[in-house]
Amino acid sequence: DLDECAASPCKDHQYCLNTDGSFSCKACDASCVGCTGEGSEKCKTCASGYVKEDEKCTDIDECNLPEKVCVKENQDCVNTSGSYKCVCSEGFEDKDGTCVQT
């Protein structure tokens, strides 16, 4: 078997998996920018919104940062994978970018 992966035939956001007589390109984990294999522990660098923790790229919980990310009145922070979103608190709705009581 020839190791086609030695020639790095895959794109930057993929890793190469050598198979018998061939190879396949697999997508890197969403937490990675470039990788050497499957999973968040094989990242070359962590994607935006992720931090290296215990040799893995882990989601940053922006909602628990000391500096608030959702600063408008009556707004709550919701952590998402690699990011966050600001939503109106319960009992409030978005009216032209402002959270007003429903």
TrEMBL record:
Keyword Signal: yes
Keyword annotations of the record: Disulfide bond, EGF-like domain, Repeat, Signal
Molecular function terms from GO: calcium ion binding
Protein name: CRE2A protein
Species annotation: Catharus fuscescens (Veery)
Keyword Zinc on entry: no
Family named by the database record: Belongs to the CRELD family.
Highest taxon of the lineage: Eukaryota
Domain EGF-like, first and last residues per copy: 59-98
InterPro entries reported for this sequence: ECM_structural_protein, EGF, EGF-like_Ca-bd_dom, EGF-type_Asp/Asn_hydroxyl_site, EGF_Ca-bd_CS, Furin_repeat, NOTCH1_EGF-like
